[in-house]
Amino acid sequence: MLVCALEPFDRAGPSRKTRQAIRNCVCPGIGDGVRRYSGVSGAPFLRSAMWHSKLRHMAKPPPVALVARKSADVAELWSRVQSGRREGHYYVALFGLRRYDAIHVVEQIKRGLSYAAFERFQRNTELSYHLLARIVEVPQRTLARRKDAGRFEPDESDRLARISRVFARAIELFEGNTENAREWLTSPVRGLGGRTPIEFASTDVGAIEVENLIGRLEYGIPS
Length: 223
Known about the structure:
By secondary structure, this protein is mostly helical. The chain has helices at residues 16-24, 30-37, 45-59, 64-68, 72-83, 102-111, 115-125, 129-135, 140-149, 154-173, 178-185, 197-200, 204-218; strands at 2-3, 26-27. Mean pLDDT is 80; it is low at 1-14 and 16-68.
């Protein structure tokens, strides 16, 4: 079990509120650190939390079983992030695609993503079919018809791509850990009015806000 040992950046020492938060912060990974410290105001403790977590993970490698569980598509996405190859729409790797230029991705969306790509995305994220259908506004009966047809409509595909982009950003936030990314995306967040990020991202405006929130968390800005 990982214990988040947080330290402020100044020499004044942690405040009473922070000391209480530290005592409460006993967590299995970065996920709890982000969740607990996304609501703490004052100093940028999140960055310190992630830094301490990195040090602990470097000192003790993750179990082989956990590494093996990462899919090839998630591994492809994370390798691009680690190597700095962020050009293009690499989040579509979660659909099993390997061409990330805008022209190709737009063509795929206008053509309609295949049902097989949808199933692959579900396996990579482990989000339930019911939740995904609700987020992309596809009723269960329509989902069954899409399965028979083998392809989604362009507008449905566009919404699927949007959710893929948000999930990929959450994977980046949690350093390649899809379980922590999924847990955060499906847990209520105070900065989003108590709604879950995955539900909030069901519209384009909401997705932008979730991505902005992720960006703030990456830079240690409490939200």
